[in-house]
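User: quick one, fold this
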Amino acid sequence: MTVHRGGWRIILVVWATCSLLIWLILHFISCPYVSLPLVSLLIFLMGFVMFFFRVPSRVIPEGDDLVTAVADGEIVVLDRVYEPEYLKRECMQVSIYMDFFNVHVNFWPVSGRVTYYKYHPGKYFLAFLPKASELNEHTSVCMENDCGEVFFKQLAGTFCRRIECYAEVGKTGSRGKQCGIIKFGSRIDMYLPLDADIKVGLGEEVRACETVIAVLDKKRLKPSSN
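Assistant:
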């Protein structure tokens, strides 16, 4: 397990602040019934912030037609919807809600070329609410390969104030590689073709890179040039 490259600045700030507070508490508060719980809380915070930015090692299943989870979390939406921003057609929406204790690094769901990227400023409603998909701060990304298009959003939550996305139109991404991070509580919305074979259910816990969200229709694959 490693630490996300964008987390080191926050980790160093938190550790420096907590270290100073621990020194002040031990220096000025002589009562152990007060000082020890406070110090324990600060040590927990130092450990948690390191834990939050962890990047775990995952086993990535093989198959060009597989769509894997962008993030760890719980499936909170599984529905047929109309996607109005880019695809402009009906899709299957699969949404993953991340709490504070989930891995918040995000990973490409398929291998392919980025055909669309846009950042949307917005509000910070609770990420599991339906209106968060349109009103909250979010990024929108579409990837395309021979099996079709996969469109997904990184949504900020109430406590999230920073989304990082590495998508660039025209560049390629590989399934299971890092595509960004959402800090401190958030959600991923994935929009898949209607003919995709959905492999997850509502309320299911999923793991980024490892959990197969759907299998795309192989009939879309281009024939070999022999």
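User: anything notable?
Assistant: Residues 11 and 50 are 6 Å apart (CA to CA).
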